[in-house]
Amino acid sequence: MDRPVVEESLARNVRRLSRLELPGAGQVRVVGQRAFVGHLPNRDRLGTTILDVSDPYAPRIISQVFLDDDESHSHKVRVVGDLMFVNHERNMTAIGRKADELPGARAALQQTLGREPTHAELARRIGVSEADIPAVEEANRRGYPHGGFRIYDIADIGRPRRLVHQHTGGIGVHRFDVDERYAYISTEMDGYVGNILVIYDIADPSRPREVSRWWLPGQHAAAGEAKAWPGRRHRLHHALRFGGELWAGCWHGGVRVIDVSDITRPTTVGAYNYHPPFPEPTHTFMPVPGLHDGRRIAVAIDEEDHAHSDAEVARRRGRLHGCLWVFDVTDLADIRPLSIFEVSELDSPWSRATPGRFGAHQFQEHMSDTLLYCAWFSGGLRIVDVADPYAPQEIGHFIPHPAQGRAAPQTNDVDVDARGLVYIVDRYAGFDILEFDRPR
After folding, report:
1. Quick one: which of 186, 152, 1, 130 has its CA closest to 67?
2. Are 150 and 161 in contact (CB under 8 A)?
C-alpha cells in the first residue's frame, strides 16, 4: 500500500500510516497488537473502542463498550493481562460541577446575610446565570451515583465481560494506573476537596479492596484540614507506579514522589511546585530510565488550560503555554528543575484558533530511552529527546488537520508500541497510526 503524503510543513521525520475517524478520545493505550481507546462524552454513549492494529495500515475495530447512562464518560483505559480497567466520571458540564459547589455557597451566604440567599445571589457566588440555578439545584438534589471504575474480563476480546463497577465519590474517577496487583485510582471521595489517590487491591478483580489513601495536606476537609488554595486547584491528577514509588502530577500543586514500599502507608518523599509563576497545571510526572551523568532525571508535562472563545485567547496572550519540564531528582528531598521545552506558536497554523488549546497536554506514560512523545493539542505530536537534560531537543513532529467542522486539531493523548509505531487520538475525532523515522 502506498503511504499517504503529508504536507512537509506539518510533519518532520514522521509519516501517517493510517487513520480512523473514531469519536473524540481522552486516552489511547496499546498492548501487543491491540489498541484501547477511551472516549470523551458523545451522543452514542460510546465508552471504549478495542482495535486490532496488527496491520498498521488497516486497523480494524474488534469490539466496543457502551455506557449505561447519559451523565458519564469513560475516557481512560488501562489493560493488564486479560483485564481491562476504565474510569467512570461525571460529564464536565457547568451545571454538574456547580451542583457540587452549591451547598457550600448557600451556607456561606446564609452566614454572611443572616437569611436564605436569593437565586441571583447564589448565581453570582458560583458563577452561573440566575436562570441556571433551578437546574443546579436539581443536579445537586439528584446527585451522581455512577462515579468509580469498571473492570472487564477481555479474554474473549470480541465480547468484554464486566466483572465489577467499583463506586467512588464526587464526580468519580479521572486518570489512573494499574499493575498486576493494585489499581492506583485518582478520584473524588466524600469528605475531600478534589481528587485524591485511593489504592485498591485487585487480587480478586471482581472484588476490589481499598488498602490505602494519599492526599495533599489540606484536602481532607472532613477531618478539619484547612486548604491554602481556592477551590480544587491543588489535587491529584494521577500517579504512575515505577518500582516502589508513585510519581504524581498534582495540578497547581506541582509534583510529588510517593513511597509505596508499604502499600498501606503511602508516604510523600519528594515534592516540588512551580505554581506560581508558571500558570498551567501539572498533568503527568515520571522518571527517565537509567542515570544521566550519574544523576537521576525526571520529566513532567503541563496541561494547557481551556480557551473556548476569542476573549479567553486574548486573555492568554503574553502568558506562558503549557510545556515540558526536566528535573534533577537525584535527591528527592531537593528536587531541582533543569530545563523546560516549549513549542512556538509559529510552529502550528492553528495555534490561535478558537475554540481550542495550543500548548502541551500529555506524553506516553512509559519510556525505554530518552525520547518523549508528547500530545501538544493544536501543536499535534512533538517528539522530544531529553538525552541532554539541560537542552531538550525536538527531533520530529506531526500535526494532523482539524477534525471535520472543527477550527483546530486537539491532539489529546499518545502511546508507542513495541514496534516503535506511534498512536495519537484527538479530542474531537480521529485515531492515527504514525511511523517515526528517527534521525541517525
Report:
1. 152
2. no
Q: Cβ(409)–Cβ(399) under 8 Å?
A: yes
Q: 153, 202, 159: which is closest to 177 by C-alpha?
A: 202
d(CA 104, CA 418): 49
Contact 164, 205 (CB under 8 A): yes
User: Which residue matches cell numbers 436562570?
Assistant: 131
Residues 320-353 have pLDDT tens digits of: 899 999 999 999 999 999 999 999 999 999 998 8
284: part of which helix (H) or strand (E)? Answer: strand 282-287
In 3D space, the residue among 99, 8, 37 whose CA is nearest the CA of residue 413 turns out to be: 37
Question: 102 phi and psi, to 5 degrees?
Answer: -60, -50
Query: Minimal CA–CA distance to 102: which of 132, 71, 72?
Result: 132
Q: Per-residue pLDDT for 165 more than 70?
A: yes
Grid cell in block for residue 422: 506511534
Q: Domains along the chain?
A: 87-150+167-415+426-436 (2.120.10)
Q: What one-character DSSP code corresponds to residue 71?
A: S
Nearest to 143 by CA among 75, 96, 106, 194: 96
DSSP codes joined into one string, 184-249: EEEEE-TT-SS-EEEEEE-SSTTS-EEEEEE--TT--GGGTPPPSSSTTSEEEEEEEEETTEEEEE
List all residues 6 or more positions away from 314 whose beta carbon is below 8 Å from its beta carbon: none
d(CA 206, CA 165): 9
| Global pTM value | 0.93
DSSP at 74: B
- Looking at residue 315, its pLDDT comes to 61
Distance CA 340, CA 354 (A): 26
Which DSSP string do the residues of 255-278 spell out, in sequence order? Answer: EEEEE-SSTTS-EEEEEE--TTT-
**pLDDT, tens only, 50-85:** 999 999 999 999 999 999 999 999 999 999 999 999
Distances (CA, A) of 1 to 15, 33, 177, 359, 432: 14, 20, 37, 34, 16
Question: Can you give the C-alpha Rg of the chain in angstroms?
Answer: 22
Q: Which residue has the cell 464526580?
A: 171
Q: Do 91 and 72 contact (CB within 8 A), yes or no?
A: yes
Q: Which of 395, 377, 383 is nearest to 439 (CA)?
A: 395
Residue 297, class by beta-carbon neighbours within 10 Å (0-12 exposed, 13-18 middle, 19+ buried)? buried
